[in-house]
Amino acid sequence: MPEGARILIIEARFYEDITDNLVRGCVQELTARGAGYKRVIVPGILEIPAVIRYAVRTMEFRATDHRYSGYVVLGCAIKGETDHYEHVCREAMGGVSRLVIDYSLALGNAILACPTRELALERSRPDGKNLGGKAARTCLRMIEVKREMGL
């Protein structure tokens, strides 16, 4: 586990029960591995990239003493009757990916894009697929990779 890791968890609360599951799995994993964290809540997955950028910008300006080693993004989009789902997923995922590449961020992604609520629930539950926990582990591993690479 990366020593002294402090993680920013950004959780989209549009589907609260699903996000609650993702958060439980994520926090359990971070706590078990000794990582510190801060949670920020946003309404939906489209707002997630903006919060990552705010955090990076705040650190660039040294406007806070909070320095984040990595980020975990949690949320869900479930397919509905229109094509809105495709646009929201594409923009949220693309925004997160661009920030990771542009700013060399360590990130674990548990933004679920599912055709049904049932699939989202199974993927979110800590006693199911536990994608929140997997996102936390991914973030911690990427922090290690950055350190191995000298970043």
Q: How would you describe what is shown here?
A:
This protein is 50% helix and 21% strand. Helix 1 (16-32) crosses helix 5 (131-148) and helix 2 packs parallel to helix 3 (84-103). A 4-stranded parallel sheet has the order 2-1-3-4, with helices on both faces. The protein has a single domain (6-148), classed as Lumazine/riboflavin synthase (Rossmann fold, 3-Layer(aba) Sandwich), CATH 3.40.50.960. It has helices spanning 16-32, 48-60, 84-103, 117-124, 131-148; strands spanning 6-12, 36-42, 70-78, 107-114. By secondary structure, it is an alpha/beta fold.
Could you tell me the mean pLDDT? 95
- The CATH topology turns out to be Rossmann fold
- Share in β-strands: 15-25%
Assembly form of the protein: single chain
Give the SSE order as H and E letters.
EHEHEHEHH
Number of alpha- plus pi-helical segments: 5
User: End-to-end distance, in Å?
Assistant: 16 Å
- The CATH class, by name, is Alpha Beta
What keyword list fits this structure?
Rossmann fold, alpha/beta, single chain
Task: Furnish the topology, listing elements before pairings.
Elements: E1 6-12, H1 16-32, E2 36-42, H2 48-60, E3 70-78, H3 84-103, E4 107-114, H4 117-124, H5 131-148
Helix pairs in contact: 1-5, 2-3
How would you briefly describe this protein structure?
The protein has five helices and four strands.
